[in-house]
Amino acid sequence: MRTLRARLTPYALIFPGGLWLAIFFVVPTLVMLSLSLQSGNVVDGFAFTWNWHSYVDGVTTYHDQIIRSLLYGLAATVIQILIGFPVAYWIAFKGGNNKSVYLFLVLLPFLVSFVLRTISWQFLLSDNGILLGPLRDAGLLPQDFRVLATPYAVIGGLSYNFLPFMILPMYVALERIDPRLLEAAQDLYASRFHTFLRVVLPLSLPGVFAGVLMTFVPASSDYVNSSVLGGTNTTMIGNVIQNQFLVNQDYPVASALSFTLMALLLIGIFAYARALGTEDVLEVAAR
Amino acid sequence: MNDFRNQDPAFLRGMTQRRLGRRDAFRLAGLSAAGLALAACGVQGKRVAKPTSSAEAQSAVQQYWSGKVKNGHVDFANWPLYMDPKQPELKQFTGQTGISVTYSEVIQENASWFAKIQPLLAAGQSINYDLMVVTNGIQFSQLVELGYLVALDHSKLPNFAANAGPRYKSEAFDPGNVYSIPWTSGMTGIAYNPKYIDTPPTSYAAMWDPKYKGKVGMMADSQEIGNFGMFLLGIDPEKSTPADWEKAAAKLKEQRDAGIVRKYYDQSYVDPLSKGDIWMCQAWSGDIFQKNVSDGTDLKFVIPDEGATIWTDNMMIPKTAANPVDAIMLMDFFYDPKVAASLAEYINYVTPVPAAQAIIKADADAASGDDKKTLEEVAASPLVFPSEADYAKLRSYRNFKNTDEQKQYENIFQAITTA
């Protein structure tokens, strides 16, 4: 009896989550897969025809937007590591008794709606707004300088919106580092730089990996930042998919593009996991 | 979680392996289920045959309306900024007829509204509204083609027959008002901020002027933007051909690649225009009036010399409506000239009831101070009561013969806006 319970417990624990995933992830994914292979239009109806053309059409028409999305996602991820790592490091090692306060501050913007935060950038960075207006009047910026409606605004918005997802896993990894390891490194005459390079950095990599996973994926498929902060030639693949679904009602192409994006992101992640060493990844998964 | 580390590794391995085995079984089951699902789930479309004779159409009307009775309630779906929030007209309707009205500003965009109601209507389910307002255009045609709209019983629309302007009784998108009667019309023209622009634009060419580089806003809507390109080239959008679309698209691409366009906007163009992020943009007539009234801005709206687009937002009854009789009574109520006048005074869009003009003038005479001035302006405004000369310059959206043609159009112009 006891062994049976012990054997069943893990399944019982996974059951609610598994059921949730089955209903809200597996089923829609299958429906989408089916849609991506159908042909027709919303008036005459769609029928399943093994129509691979949606994939071909989608990728040939929108390869620019796909590549752009991956590049924007990558740029945002790099910026987030550069900004987030020092923050996580500082909170983990210098935060003292106020760590939870600092973490709360990192999370604070999350209490405001995602869309609202992005729209507030519009207000802040408006051409004649409180930031750019005075700088231009002072002659520090050229007359036609602008931030909004540029790729920089979109990448900036992506970096800002997903930053806590980068900081938190890195903080967790850094916080787990035993301070005695650092002391040991110093006892062995490692310089502070080398302590960081040889001890802190390798131990924090699983956190960085988790952070990259949690930011690169949503950033690459995001459409809010591009539609609110972007201009011409900044359309991301998320916008195209949304447009195909809601404006054109071209469900097959929209689904095919979603699957293509999913496949590209998975390939990217596994390649990255490979490059970083699979053991680190498993370690992250175990936490 | 940390306790896992202290577990016997053999136990961990065992669990992992068992789980994998289990997952394989699921995977197999899932695949076969997926195969079945893939084959089974097509999306239903139900194009309906158009009635071939007027007798047939007449009998369809009779068949639908016979036995339908007033239920005392109507659910009305409309766009934001399309009625005084105090809803004086609806209160009056309830007072006169005893029919209560639930008014919801749930429609933000034709495409997303269509996407929302389409699956319900396809399944023959209620969308929870008896009356809705949709613009003439792609989605309206689709609603008609799919048979999602109730054919109206014109014997129940005496006010419409008596008071609607002749133009609004013979719209190309719904000849004979079989499925819809207009709620209101509006123009798409050029709005500009006089703080930054000294010479008022009179031609579409102003939007291609390199001196406004990065300060011009265009719309993302493929019909609106396509029309601007065609007006610039002197093409009548209503009669345009695919070759015209390509020409217009080339012009729009030129405008984009020269960096003149800052961005392709949805309804969100008003704020950047008043803040000075853009100096000039495509705009809908009533939006600019309402922004000026509500925020005290001084934005201007012009109809260029080449002409402009006029569109019509139409009231219609979805086929699954629970209260069609109450809905058609409300539709007719808005064609009472007094009601039409009161609505136009607030929203400042083109009213389909010409007789409203005299009533607004009379209201202006009775009013005083600022109210008097505003009402006089509304009564004289070409944006609410366009003259024949104004109408002569206005054109409608292109009606698409079929979905292939529509798709071709959208692909051409979306290549501009979603690059």
TrEMBL record, chain A:
Q: Read off the PROSITE patterns from this record.
A: ABC_TM1
Give the record's membrane topology. Answer: Multi-pass membrane protein
The record's section on InterPro entries has: MetI-like, MetI-like_sf
A Pfam family of this chain = BPD_transp_1
Source organism superkingdom: Bacteria
Question: Which BP terms in the Gene Ontology apply to this protein?
Answer: transmembrane transport
Q: Which UniProt keywords apply?
A: Cell membrane, Membrane, Transmembrane, Transmembrane helix, Transport
Q: Enumerate the transmembrane spans.
A: 12-35, 70-92, 101-124, 152-174, 195-217, 253-273
Instruction: Cite the ABC transmembrane type-1 domain residue spans from the record.
Output: 66-272
Q: Which residues form a coiled coil?
A: none
Q: Which family does it belong to?
A: Belongs to the binding-protein-dependent transport system permease family. CysTW subfamily.
Q: What is this protein called?
A: ABC transporter permease
Automatic annotation (TrEMBL), chain B:
Q: Name one GO molecular function term.
A: polyamine binding
What Pfam families has UniProt attached to this entry?
SBP_bac_8 (PF13416)
State where the protein is found.
Periplasm
Supply one GO BP term. Answer: polyamine transport
CC terms in the record's Gene Ontology section? periplasmic space
**Record's keyword terms, sorted:** Lipoprotein, Periplasm, Signal, Transport
Asked whether the UniProt record includes Lipoprotein among its keywords, one would answer yes
Matches recorded under Gene3D superfamilies: Periplasmic binding protein-like II
Name it. Polyamine-binding lipoprotein
